[in-house]
Amino acid sequence: MAILALHGGAGGDGPWRGMTALDPQRLACMERILHDLGPRLEAGEINALEAVTLAVESMEDEPLYNAGRGSVLAADERVYMDASIMQGSDQAAGSVVNVESTRHPIRAAHLLLKEGWPVMLNAAAADAFAEKNGLEQVDLDWLKTDLRQAQWAKWHNEKSRPGSTDEDDEAVLDHDLGEAEGMGTVGAVALDSSGNLAAATSTGGMTGKPIGRIGDTPIIGAGTWCDPSVAVSCTGVGEAFIRTCAAHEVAVQLRNDSGNLAKACDTVLEMVKPMGGRGGIIAISRSGEVALPFQTMLMYRGLWRAGRITTGIGNEEYSSKPTTLGQNTGLP
Amino acid sequence: MAILALHGGAGGDGPWRGMTALDPQRLACMERILHDLGPRLEAGEINALEAVTLAVESMEDEPLYNAGRGSVLAADERVYMDASIMQGSDQAAGSVVNVESTRHPIRAAHLLLKEGWPVMLNAAAADAFAEKNGLEQVDLDWLKTDLRQAQWAKWHNEKSRPGSTDEDDEAVLDHDLGEAEGMGTVGAVALDSSGNLAAATSTGGMTGKPIGRIGDTPIIGAGTWCDPSVAVSCTGVGEAFIRTCAAHEVAVQLRNDSGNLAKACDTVLEMVKPMGGRGGIIAISRSGEVALPFQTMLMYRGLWRAGRITTGIGNEEYSSKPTTLGQNTGLP
Fold first, then answer.
1. Residue A163: pLDDT band by 50, 70, 90 thresholds?
2. Phi, psi at residue B98, to the nearest 5°?
3. How confident is the model at residue A2 (pLDDT cuts 50, 70, 90)?
4. Taking a C-beta distance cutoff of 8 angstroms, is the pair B6, B190 a contact?
5. How close B62 comes to chain A (CA, Å)?
6. For FRET with B106, which of A306, B23, B197, B220 sits at 20 to 30 Å CA-CA?
7. Shortest CA distance to A179 belongs to which of A64, A44, A88?
8. DSSP bridge pairs for B220
9. How far is residue B137's CA from residue B4's CA, in Å, rounded to a whole number?
10. Rounded to an integer, what is the distance from CA B311 to the centroid of its chain?
């Protein structure tokens, strides 16, 4: 039994109002990934660690997700990306913080995991490590997209308006650009045919974030966790996930209430709330349980299990046979 | 009932061989802090959060501890400091990563906690935040001490020697300079007279660390944790503490085995071992239990409880009446 689950960020308030013009492209990216990697994971051609790495790399390349190319812009109009990865067997981990030129931050984190030490590398040193190990380096202009530039401009204008609040900013971003809070952090969790678990998460952070802000995504235990029992990737208001050690807490809750992964995730989302945080979690347990809960308007998500692909945005779910991929998904 | 506990880092192999020439100065620093802050904490003049901040600030100023002034030098002979702080009541937290010019990194983390968002700030942005908020900025020359320069030179020479290993390096540092692995990370945990808990940790990392390496000290859940039940500060091989979410795991173990803090800490130190990590933990529970375990040769530590001050390095313990402070401690 092999399983691969993905998320493309959680966000938004109120009931889901259906797909925006850009959503089909987001779902098509997930379907493509699940269609490609699911069978390879099932066949033992790739292990869980490689599957989550490849999945997140593909989402980092999709400009409509907020990671790698298409990352949102920080207060200074630049891109600062965070990523982390962990495998269950020995709890080896890797993390890069505030990288600026590595095309695939998750692969840099993966290389740190493989090297074994250190677990975390920061900023220019992480980009240099990636480059030294042959990972592609890209320009800021390549990472930036028109959509993210427009979101940044709106954020900047609203911020400059007298009496504006952060909440106003988000409302403007939501409606005009078909975005729910512009989060779009990406993540993947996998169980391979040998019973190994792995988890990975990658993000550009949030539009207009202060320079130097570090969210939960690169923090082992907050945004990403994996041990022999469970693989977890979180998305949402990062600070609340840090203050609750959210990803690790999922493992703890599962340990205490063995076999009920859905309940463990729900409990953790309830713990995050009083800290002002909302978001979503994707998790797979060693026994093959899957949970993809979210407490926001939506969470972009996808699942490959037993040859079947399921995707979703709001509370609805789409199923597709891999063979019909690309025919009705809006994929260019 | 108010309690304040401190650590000045754990390290070393084999049996403790007694005090080095420099150890009295380290203990005197702790006694001074406990003598000053203990009664003020007991009287309710300062709360737990302020007590751990003031305690760590004082250890950051003591050049024989590896935090603030006297931080060890990274591979490039510069100083990169990490610190984090957390309070139990609402799990508010603050963290600064790889700061270079802020005299008291823990106070910068404290200010982030007070601001509420973001929790973590990185490098130059964290120094700029500190400066903007009136925190003293210092030069690299002020932070660097002759002792740390000598340790760096030894590390550099040994590294350049054919066939050398990291273990050789550490052995040389130990004996010639009266240092046990040169760790000396500092931390404090406190319970105040209103029942509030707080924890704080600060470090310069390790001699010759790769530029950009982030250890467990600034990671909420790894090096520092505090919730309504327990305050925890860890010291040791940072990567292993990250991969086990060690500080948070202490809270988890205590939750599962209510009231046995010593056992919780011991369990966590056993979890850290298979990851190649050893170290120490200081923790205080809401009910006033204290645990200061370590699995290394030594852990510099101090405790103020009920008007009594206790300090220790190896397995021995020293008690002192506050009034005799400075008379027989080797304090200059």
1. low
2. 55, 45
3. very high
4. no
5. 27
6. B23
7. A64
8. B224
9. 28
10. 15
Is the separation of the CB atoms in B329 and B322 below 8 Å? no
First-last CA distance in chain B: 33
Q: State CA A276 to chain mean position distance.
A: 20
Interface test with A, best of B91, B119, B256 (most A CBs within 10 A): B119
* Backbone angles phi and psi of B46, in degrees to 5: -125, 150
Cβ separation B210–A91 shorter than 8 A: no
**pLDDT tens readout for residues B187-244:** 999 999 999 999 999 999 999 999 999 999 999 999 999 999 999 999 988 999 999 9
List the one residue out of A161, A174, A163, A182 whose CA is nearest residue A65.
A182
Q: Across chain A, how many H-helices and E-strands are there?
A: 10, 14
Chain A touched by B4 (CB under 8 Å): no
CB atoms within 10 A of CB B299: 26
What is residue B294's DSSP assignment?
A: B
Chain B residue closest to A116 (CA)?
Answer: B239
Pick the closest to residue A87 from A224, A232, A198 (CA basis). A198
Which chain B residue lies closest to A272 (C-alpha atoms)? B91
Q: What is the biggest distance separating any 2 CA atoms in chain A, rounded to whole angstroms?
A: 59
Cα distance between residue B145 and residue A77, in whole Å? 39
Residue-level pLDDT at A167: 46
CA triplet B162, B165, B170: central angle to 5 degrees?
Answer: 125
A24, two tokens: 């089909």
A296 flagged as catalytic: no
ipTM score assigned to the predicted complex:
0.92
Identify the band that residue B121 occupies on the pLDDT scale cut at 50, 70 and 90.
very high
Q: How many CA atoms lie within 13 A of A152 on its CB side?
A: 22
Average pLDDT, chain A: 90
| pLDDT over threshold 70, residue B172 | no
Could you tell me where the DSSP H helices lie in chain B? 23-42, 48-61, 105-115, 123-132, 140-143, 146-160, 166-177, 238-243, 246-256, 261-272
Whole-number Å distance between alpha carbons of A15 and B171:
63
Residue from A69, A7, A20 nearest A296 by CA: A7
pLDDT-based confidence at residue B322 (cuts at 50, 70, 90): very low
The hierarchical CATH code for the domain B3-89+141-312 is: 3.60.20.30
- Taking the C-alpha atoms of residue A208 and residue A75, their distance in angstroms, rounded to an integer, is 4
**The dihedral sign for the CA sequence B258, B260, B263, B268:** positive
Here the tokens at position B205 are: 């990392």
